[in-house]
Amino acid sequence: MILDNVFRRGLSALLVGLVLLGAVTLAMPLRTTAAAAGPEIVIDGETLELDAPSRYYDGRLYVPVAPLADRFGGSVSWDGKQEALTVRSAVKDEIVLGNEVPVVYLNGERLVMDAVPILVDGRLYAPLRELTELLHGRMHYDTEAEVALLTRIKQVELSAEDTLSSILETYGLTRQELMRRNNMDAKSEPKTGTLLKVVVPTFFSNTAKPYTEAEYMLLAKITMVEAGYESYEGQLAIANIILNRVAHSKFPDTIREVIYSGRQFPPAHNGLLDKSKPHASALRAAKDALNGRNNVPGAVYFYNPDVTRGEFWSNLTTVATIGNHRFAK
Questions:
Q1: What is the pLDDT of residues 293-329, one digit of tens each?
Q2: Nearest 5°: CA angle at 132, between 131 and 138?
Q3: Is residue 59 packed enough to be buried (19+ CB in 10 Å), middle (13-18) or exposed (0-12)?
Q4: Span between the terminal Cα atoms of the chain, in Å
Q5: 3-state SS of the chain: helix, strand, coil percent to 5?
Q6: Would you say the C-alpha torsion 170, 175, 180, 183 has a positive or negative sign?
Q7: Where do runs of H (alpha helix) occur along the chain?
């Protein structure tokens, strides 16, 4: 993986495109040459004991997800093939975080964080403040003591004392935010006794533009036919060539039109694409690319330098070489 031994060598400078996110800017992967050790973390007055150190990256504090989720009363499950961690929180949220993927799933809704989770020595790390909010807590950093102070926030029961209006005022929320956070219609009137989640992540409004199942499968199929024999990183790069083109003014603005226009993708015209059956790695690469993981930022061309030659290709700027392919702009 690109990020193996990241604490010793730092993170690769990976830009994340704006593809399929409309006006929402995707999280920028971390750029750093070293990771400073993080401060003490205290939850409700008790120090959090970590099995791996917290770390600063570019001024943002990162922690391993699993021990923090456990202290917040949640449970976790790890999918090694997808490099994704699913957290089931104490307030019954399902949170899915992927390695280097800026889009986080909160109860199936795709939200864009402004910093990406990272996999280090087999542990998935995430930015502490955002992770705390996802787990229904608050974070305050005591700069003088150099301590991160976390507070677990319980759900609030709607009552004669804790009315909807008082809850909105106490927690600084709008009615729309509160209703959406609790998966309720904005015009609904919650009944007395309803338990309400009152912590809304700061990135809650950063929703990722949806993609269709047809777009996902088409991207996975072209990834498979062009790079199914390559590594996951090579497959991810192919998927991102398509999405980078969608975002580029020189090319069509849909996945289908990019694939079927021009001559860059012969399988789209000779029947091979229709027969393509993506394997698990190609499906993952397509999904991760759609969720903002981009290992070839700005690249809109790819070619095999052992096969394809000429002035046009030699004048391109190489962004990366992965497996048999060179990715360029």
A1: 999 999 999 999 999 999 999 999 999 999 999 999 9
A2: 150
A3: exposed
A4: 24
A5: 30, 25, 50
A6: positive
A7: 6-9, 65-71, 128-134, 164-171, 175-181, 213-227, 232-247, 255-260, 267-270, 272-275, 280-290, 311-314
